[in-house]
Specification:
Layout lengths: L23 H17 L3 H7 L6 H7 L13 H6 L4 E2 L3 E2 L5 H11 L5 H14 L1 H6 L2 H12 L5 E4 L15 E4 L5 E11 L7 E7 L8 E7 L6 E5 L11 E11 L3 E2 L5 H37 L1 E2 L2 E2 L4 H28 L4 H34 L11 H7 L2 H5 L5 H28 L8
Helix pairs in contact: 1-5, 5-9, 9-10, 9-11, 10-11, 11-12, 11-14
Length: 445
Amino acid sequence: MSKVPIPFSEPPWLMGHPSPYYNDSHKKWQKTCRAMVDELMADAGEWERQGDVPENLYSQFAAANMLIPNLSAPLPVQWLHKLGIHTLPGGLPVDEFDYIHTLIYVDEIARSGSLGPGGAITTGMAFGVPPILKFGSKSLQERFLPDLLTGKKRICIAITEPSAGSDVGNIQTTATRTKDGKHFIVNGTKKWITNGLWSDYASMAVRTGGPGPAGLSMLVVPLLHTKGVNMRRIKVQGQTAAGTTFIELDDVLVPVENLIGKEGMGMKYVMQNFNHERLSISIGVNRLSRVAIGAAFEYCLKREAFGKPLMDQPVVRHRLAKCGAELESHWAWTEQFTYSLTKMSEEEANRELGGLTALLKAQAGRVIESCASTAVLLFGGNGYSKSGQGEVAERIYREVPGARIPGGSEDVMLDVAIRQLVKNFQRKTKELETAVEGPSGSSKL
């Protein structure tokens, strides 16, 4: 039996409000995703408590073709057709998949109320495969994509190091060519690498040249069962089930053919890859904020204090109202942003939306901080407990740093956004002035 959804517990379009963004394909996809996620991740809360997911969870998602929607839209249709994959669950043709479908998929995955279990089966595919798809040579793709796209092998994205997080240009892990020129010798450490523990490979940022961004490249580095590679799980505050990993690399031999794209172009590849990552984080974090404030709203309707429901207290309504405004404003921006991606080329989107993607991600962190802390306060003692009716609020509160730091810490994102906006403004101003002056230098006016 259906029931009336709690206010703020669903995005407006799922509350019955009209929207220009969602067509029949999107609506059908949402129902398909919800049913499959409810089936495959019914015990996500328990997995997060235990700090791990079942060993067969990834293969279950792979068998259902539910790993592929993690990739940025449009999907690699030629590769998927070559592998015999023509449709996604619910009969959605892979060549009709757009960024609104991505939005729906990421949103539904995050309904579990934790970034951990979802991250365990999405992060590697979402952010580790695209560098190979977008920048890798044909031979590199032929070697790795068949097993990665079908889920037979796993990959992670390995950028961050103990001394280089948002400061990507300061990466210290080195990749030095052997004397015969056939291999790179990789040495260094990578830290806070999601899914690393289970990954056969990593799309890894390494230093092949001198200092600074120009010295960076990307390699496909083998991990599991590879000599010189040591991996161990890192215990973190939130996302405990996502397999956060510390990787040590000691004279690891990597074929030179594993170079992604061109040597010295690593910084560009990493930055472009961040755009999809930051948008995905923004979507998932908004849903996590929604779970927190929706649970608190429902609790305040039934919990009594001082002889009446909490919802009858003006201060409670005031807190919920402020969070709701922040939540829905961010969601409206996220929808509009995602819609723009369906109308722009990748080159145009990277140029025009890169800075705004950083700003969207930064705002997502501010929204979840507000919603999660408010939920804990409204649940009271229950929100301070790791079990019982306030458990979800306590768990999401621990996810806040994981929303504000990975993918680019908040302060760096705010700075990146403005610098990129200034750069675009100056470029467009110069282009306009050049157009007005004309080729001879005289004004057309």
